[in-house]
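Protein modeling request. Please complete all fields; requests missing the sequence field cannot be processed.
Requester role: graduate student
Desired output: 3D structure, token encoding
Chains: 1
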Amino acid sequence: MTRDIITRYFDAFNAGDSDTMLSLVSDDVQHFVNQGELRQGRAAFAEFCGHMGVSYREELRDMVIFTSDDGSRAAAEFTVHGEYLQTDPGLPEARGQRYTLPAGSFFALEGGKITRITTYYNLQDWIRQVSA
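Delivered output (132 residues):
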């Protein structure tokens, strides 16, 4: 069940289907963004998804999903293939630059819903790629 939930989450991400992503998270989901602040709750997660859909076009490839024996935790390793579409405040100017980054996400699950999402990637590598 846990593997299916995480697979559905990433399939929805790759399809740009934030409605499905939102259906898989709990009302009080904790979303820890790479080198950013905690976003608490489904509404904050929805806002983040909307922003990402405008500023970036990303596809996650080479996905490997790991799950704990009890199904309460999961992790995924993948490669982000993206395009920077609209300038994010405090970051380099967007000009349609393409980038490729190794990344990973960690999840907690309870009652068939994702309750925590933590994502990591090398921000300095991303800045180097979009600044070149």
